Amino acid sequence: MSNWSLTAPTFSILISIGVVLLSGWLGWGIWNRNGRRRNIAILEVLRTIAVTLLAFTLLEPEFIRRIIRTEQPQISILNDHSESMLTRDIVSTNEIISRKKWLDNQNKREFWKELEDNSDVLVDINSFASPTNSALTNNLTNSEEIGTDLNSILSAEIDQKKNLKAVLLLSDGDWNLGSSPISAATRYRDKEIPIYSIVTGQDQPIADLSMEDISAPAYGLFGEQISIPYTIQSHLPRDVSTEIRLMNGKELFASKKISLPAKNRFRDSIMWYPSEIGEFDLRLEFPVEQDEELKDNNSAKFNIGVRVVKLNVLVVDSQPRWEYRFLRNALARDPGVDLNCVLLHPKISPGGGRDYLSSFPGSREMLSRYDVIFIGDVGVGENQLSKKDAELIRGLVEQQGSGLVFMPGRRGNQISLMNSELRELMPVVLNQDKPKGIGMNNESMLTLSTLGRRHLLTRFDADEITNDQIWKMLPGFYWSTAVTKSRPGTEVLAVHSELRNQFGRIPLLAIRNAGLGKVLFMGTDSAWRWRRGVEDKFHYRFWSQVARWMAHKRHLAEKEGIRLSFSPETPKVGDRIFLQATVLDKAGFPLENGDVKGEFLYPKSGEETLNLNEIKGGWGVYSTEFSAKEGGDYKIKIEAPDHDRKLETKIIVSMPKREKLGRPVNRPILNEIASITGGESANIDDLGEIIKKIAVLPEPKPVELRTLLWSNPWWGGFILLLLITYWTGRKLVGLV
């Protein structure tokens, strides 16, 4: 069955008829005036046809074909058998059963029988993901992401079934993969196909404790403490005192007493001092409580490497003040540090001695070896740093990922740094009206901020309360840098215990990211006083942690003449991984305009070439990026064949555990899908009522196929061809 439809109003139709009649009358007159010649008659008929077709097109005609379906309408019943459906939270008679078992019971009794009288019922028992081994979803070596993609499931139904009358969805709504199912719901609405849903499960989470996440670094240093952050989710109605344990098989590496707040998320970290070198597959766990419903989600595994790394550190100052002397001694005694010092005495030649340099290493080649640079009471000027030196330091931090520590002093030389490239790296805004800083008669203390209480740099003890007490007992200071406020993007670890201004407490210990590197600001010159009564216990510990924290990214992967850093350090499937390779030529200088190649091997699906582009600045840095589509070990190879540089390493991409037990149902998304499509969402007790409502739904409307003639390019081209032919004919017969 087919017909034409005009969307234009009656007035437009009358105008179009008038235009066609006028065109015909003009053509009649032209034919009479030209002796009624045959060729003129043909041209005028051609023009009249073109005008008629054009006028018809302007009425926006549509050719409609209606297809009447003779087969029975289809009703799809989709069963959710994803892992979240194993949650036991449905009351059945005298027992509590899992969502999946309730669904199986309904399928056994064939609850859809009433619908088969006038519809073709299509029951899909395994509509959703159904892993055979739930442990796979938390396995580092698993490469296939497991989850529930509601949008893909619903889209597949409407694409594959051509005579759908309705869809019944039995699910907990735990959508955790793919794009929003709302986009699929709009397609159902456009075709007037309702989606009904039975919300399978409870709106409240079951009583449980679960290890949600572990954010361990890719590697740690031998003999140094490693901070391993973790997150625990509690759905118990009470506080829980327990113990977190770091295990290597059955061997206990570290433990810590913790208190988990009721019905809340708990974030903390555990400290580990590795005594061996190598790769470790560790497990973080805590005991199962008696009132937990789930017994197998209180632990998680992760991989970490332990290495021996020698850090190159440069300390630059203007005079041998106490802070400089004790810092130099601490770093010089550190077996993991290769120290160089530059002492730029005012008005005299630079200092000399063991580990001293005669001048600042003022070239990219000499400076690029340093992992961390300490800048003390020194500025930009005569017999100090030059503006070129400041530019080199900024390039080293931002492009090669080195660390920079500002340690101002009482001479106030740091003010001159604000007129150099280092201004953009300073974590705080200095008060330039007080270049000599602020002296006080009474001793002041460093007070840790909320962030500082749990940050690795300020950790003197694994227990947060004990660590806070240590900081309160540390000897204080009588002088501090004049600081106005912290800059945007800065993280403040400690503030002045006494001074404040209109912006709040004065920040004295602060950190910020700068490009690939990190920057730290220490606003007092009295950290050396922490040695009182305990020698190097806290002073050495603090500066050792600073140096290693700042240099961490530079040593993720390295070989002679080539170094690779990547972000994020512990990627997950779906993350975009950014790689930056620092390459030196055969002479040891940063490689410029070089041919740097790369490739990576997916855990399962083959290899792919990486295109590395040089970052401007002359630091020999080449960058690229790729998407982590699979979980497992990615083998990375970077090489500069013309300079005999090659590095091979691996990046471990973890698979997030999307399907989790114990979660409440996602009722809002099921309600919204039903609302958009004109269906209904109900609880499991109302399954029979939903079946009755589906049974009385009207038959699907005939399918209408509309051909929009007025927007068809072929139709427009045909009219244009008629007009061209007409004007060409007029020229041939001498009318133009």
How would you characterize the overall build of this protein?
- By secondary structure, this protein is α+β, with helices and mostly antiparallel strands.
- It folds into 5 domains: 2-68 and 704-732, no CATH class; 76-200 and 662-700, von Willebrand factor, type A domain (Rossmann fold), CATH 3.40.50; 209-303, Immunoglobulins (Immunoglobulin-like), CATH 2.60.40.10; 311-555, Rossmann fold, CATH 3.40.50; 557-653, Immunoglobulin-like (Sandwich), CATH 2.60.40.10.
- The chain contains 13 helices and 39 strands.
- An 8-stranded mixed sheet has the order 18-17-19-20-28-27-26-23. A 5-stranded parallel sheet has the order 6-3-7-8-38.
- It starts with a strand and ends with a helix.
- Mean pLDDT is 87; it is low at 130-143.
